[in-house]
Amino acid sequence: MPESVPSSLIIDAFKEIFQAERRGAKRQDPLGWIISVPDTHQKSVLAALDKERSLRVLTCSTEDDANAVAAGLYMTGEPVIVMIQHAGLYASVNTIRGISMDGKVPIFHMIGLLSREKDKDPKDSRHSMVRFAEPLLDVFSIPHARMEGPDDVKLIAEYYRKSRERKGPAAVLVGLETA
Q1: Which of 35, 65, 92, 168 is 20 to 30 A removed from 76 (C-alpha atoms)?
Q2: Domains in the chain, start-ordered, CATH in brackets?
Q3: Cα separation of 50 and 76, whole Å?
Q4: Considering the entire predicted model, what is its pTM?
Q5: CA atoms within 13 A on the CB side of 2
Q6: How far apart, in whole angstroms, are the C-alpha atoms of residue 122 and residue 127?
Q7: pLDDT tens digits, the chain, 179 residues: what are they?
Q8: What's the gap between Cα 35 and its chain centre?
């Protein structure tokens, strides 16, 4: 049964990823960037990030903006993670295709599955946005995994690395609202 993941575990994972990216770099501040679009599913992480001094958070109006900003930061050597909801995945699929896939820009997404029922696999959800998120990623051959509890936090680093290795998008779907 899936369970909520504490925001502190997610932020620690972000820091570890960014520290690894910054090893040997002259500049260490900020450690990395979180680009977000307002997200109720991951709101506890976003609230905790507001208090975090080593990470910079930039809130964008749209997922298209978030992907473009993430690409620009990547091109300047900055480590970056994009946090959106599944609705944003649908809204920005053309931008993800153009910037991250065709442009070969590694962008790692944390995608909240808002309205996901705890007792159902997403493919069995009565909510189409939950039900079709993973198949949409599959159509575009975007590597993805589902974070279903605290033991899955390790997937964040794994899929962040996948985005870098393949020079394209990769995602972790946040199964339940973060704690």
Answers
A1: 92
A2: 7-174 (3.40.50.970)
A3: 23
A4: 0.95
A5: 21
A6: 9
A7: 789 999 999 999 999 999 999 887 776 779 999 999 988 889 999 999 999 999 999 999 999 999 999 999 999 999 999 999 999 999 999 999 999 999 999 999 999 999 999 999 999 999 999 999 999 999 999 999 999 999 999 999 999 999 999 999 999 999 999 99
A8: 9
